[in-house]
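ok, trying the design again with the full structure, not the truncated one.
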């Protein structure tokens, strides 16, 4: 006699889902209860979106939904169907990094890098809304993002530098060139 195992709960139904991800239209069949974070990582392949706490307290999973920072671990994917979603992969313009990505490298805003994508996404939204934020506004914008490595001062310095770069209009011609100093921003 062979035993047949039946699941205790029925499987979730698949539903069609469509959204703009980093400027491209994406359609996928998803489970009706799928979390946006899982759809972005597992089905779309945007691995810059990180799973940190799954409770909305760390900010690692931050994405822009129609230009506003949101925590993808707390949103059902079907809630944002048809929206424009930007992940850290969508901040760069081809080979040219977004100024905040560039300045994170220059000023040491990224240490281990795990929290970095969430910070970059949130800060890019801040700089779009307010191109010249003061330190209080910067700290308020990033208060939902946790970093265990930097002590935050390098992040604030990076935002200030990115703001200056954006306001000057002097972008780096080719940000894919290697830096000669392996510790940029720390002249000893």
């Amino acid at each position: 006699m062979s035993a047949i195992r039946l699941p205790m709960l029925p499987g979730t139904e698949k539903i069609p889902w469509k959204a703009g991800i980093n400027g491209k239209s994406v359609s996928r069949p998803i489970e009706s209860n799928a979390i946006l974070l899982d759809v972005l990582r597992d089905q779309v392949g945007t691995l810059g979106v990180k799973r940190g706490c799954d409770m909305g307290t760390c900010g690692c999973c931050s994405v822009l939904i129609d230009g506003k920072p949101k925590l993808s671990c707390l949103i059902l994917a079907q809630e944002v169907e048809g929206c424009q979603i930007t992940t850290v992969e969508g901040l760069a313009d081809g080979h040219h990094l977004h100024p905040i990505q560039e300045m994170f490298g220059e000023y040491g805003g990224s240490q281990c890098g795990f929290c970095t994508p969430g910070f970059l996404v949130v800060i890019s939204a801040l700089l779009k809304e307010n191109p010249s934020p003061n330190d209080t506004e910067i700290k308020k914008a990033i208060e939902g993002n946790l970093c265990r490595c930097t002590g935050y001062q390098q992040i604030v310095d990076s935002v200030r530098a990115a703001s200056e770069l954006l306001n000057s209009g002097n972008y780096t011609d080719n940000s894919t060139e290697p830096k000669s100093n392996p510790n940029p921003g720390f002249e000893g």
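Keeping the full-length input from now on. The beta strands are 14-21, 24-31, 62-65, 68-71, 84-86.
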